[in-house]
Write a structure and sequence with these properties.
- By secondary structure, the protein is an alpha/beta fold.
- It has a domain of about 100 residues.
- About 35% of the residues lie in helices and about 25% in strands.
- The strands form 2 sheets. The chain has an 8-stranded mixed beta sheet, with helices on both faces. Strands 2-1-4-5 form a 4-stranded antiparallel beta sheet.
- Strand 1 and strand 2 form a beta hairpin.
- The longest helix has 18 residues.
- The chain is globular, with a radius of gyration of 21 Å.
- Bound molecules: adenosine-5'-triphosphate and magnesium ion.
- Magnesium ion binds next to helix 1.
- Adenosine-5'-triphosphate binds next to strand 1, strand 2 and helix 1.
- This is Dipeptide/oligopeptide/nickel ABC transporter ATP-binding protein.
């Protein structure tokens, strides 16, 4: 049985323009100990998916459909107090901006002690010892327990956040852009740290990022999000080497402009759809070089291999698409329609 299973999960935000469906009918599975990477351009719903799983949606957001089964329970049905026992101990999270993740008015030690004591029978002293051990493990030393977050560098703060997420050895960790905003060397260090700790604990992990190289490096499985939908999911090697959705092909192509402008994820012309009024049928059609009339209809989720699916009418032509999509002019001029 899977550790985490999402079935037909949809999430909406109430906005001035009407309901915005940021996550649409997502099906997803994660086995114990597995690392799942989620990639996609800005605004495709990655963070919303994370907040949906963690029950951290803002006031205007709500899950409008589906089930999220974790270890035999439906997370969408948990009460506030049930969430208090699940969060950190069973599902923890690492968010992008560590300064926001840590409370500026408490010392690092105090934040550990609070979380540890809420979930264990540890005395204050025992919790502090455990916190110190965790700090040593992430390479910043127990001497920093009395520091306030602002006394640490960005990289050190992110190490603290990683240590907090792992302190109670949860079976699932969700990390949203855990290395974004850090300098390149620190990014690599934090990524290595996360990988080492994850493999030591054997926790499952969902790692969300717009940086494909991160996913290629760490994830067993990869999910690609576009316009609120999961458009392709499979083993990372299959998703990257045997892509079945044209969006994935566009994302993974190393076009010259990507080298010139490494901040840009894609060289796919255009932008993701507005999620208040998403296009009918395939959401990627308007940017897809292989679009046909059929794409005005909602594409099916097709199996294309072992635990590998793609949401496209033309998965049977994926090999040709891969070939053509590796040429930049396919994207700039549009292919044979
Ligand atoms: N609190 C909110 N209220 C209204 N709309 C929101 C809110 N948060 C996000 N959205 C919208 O939901 C959609 C998905 O946003 P989300 O933050 O989940 O995307 P993302 O893939 O994480 O993007 P990024 O890569 O920039 O972090 C976007 O259209 C965004 O504008
Ligand atoms: Mg995000």
């Amino acid at each position: 049985m899977s550790l985490l299973e999402l079935r037909d999960v949809s999430t909406e935000y109430e906005t001035d323009d009407g309901p915005l469906r940021a996550v649409e009918s997502v099906d997803m599975e994660l086995e114990a100990g597995e690392i799942l990477g989620i990639v996609g351009e800005s605004g495709c719903g990655k963070t919303t998916l994370m907040k949906t799983i963690l029950n951290l949606l803002p006031g205007n957001g709500r899950v409008v459909g589906g089930e999220i089964e974790f270890d035999g329970r439906d997370l969408t049905q948990l009460s506030k107090s049930e969430w208090q026992s699940v969060r950190w101990a069973e599902i923890s999270y690492i968010i992008q901006n560590a300064m926001n993740a840590l409370d500026p008015v408490y010392t690092v030690g105090a934040q550990f002690v609070e979380i540890i004591r809420a979930h264990t029978d540890d005395s204050k002293a025992e919790a502090r010892t455990r916190a110190g051990d965790m700090l040593e493990k992430v390479g910043i030393g127990r001497g920093r327990l009395n520091d306030y977050p602002h006394e640490l560098s960005g990289g050190q703060r992110q190490r603290v956040v990683v240590a907090l997420a792992l302190a109670l050895e949860p079976p699932l960790i969700v990390a949203d852009e855990p290395t974004t905003g850090l300098d390149v060397v620190t990014q690599e260090e934090i990524l290595t740290l996360i990988q080492d700790m994850q493999s030591e604990l054997g926790s499952a992990m969902i790692i969300i990022t717009h940086d494909i190289s991160v996913v290629a490096e760490v994830a067993d499985r990869t999910g690609v999000m576009y316009g609120g939908q999961l458009v392709e999911v499979g083993d990372t090697v299959d998703v990257f080497n045997n892509s079945a959705h044209p969006y994935t092909m566009g994302l993974t192509n190393a076009f010259p402009s990507l080298a010139d402008n490494p901040e840009r994820l894609v060289s796919i012309p255009g932008t993701p759809p507005d999620l208040v009024t998403p296009p009918e049928g395939c959401r990627f059609a308007e940017r897809c070089p292989f679009e046909t009339e059929a794409c005005a209809r909602e594409p099916p989720v097709e199996g294309v291999g072992d635990r590998h699916t793609a949401r496209c009418h033309y998965t049977d032509q994926a090999a040709r698409f891969r070939e053509e999509s590796s040429r930049e002019d396919t994207w700039t001029e549009g292919a044979d329609r």
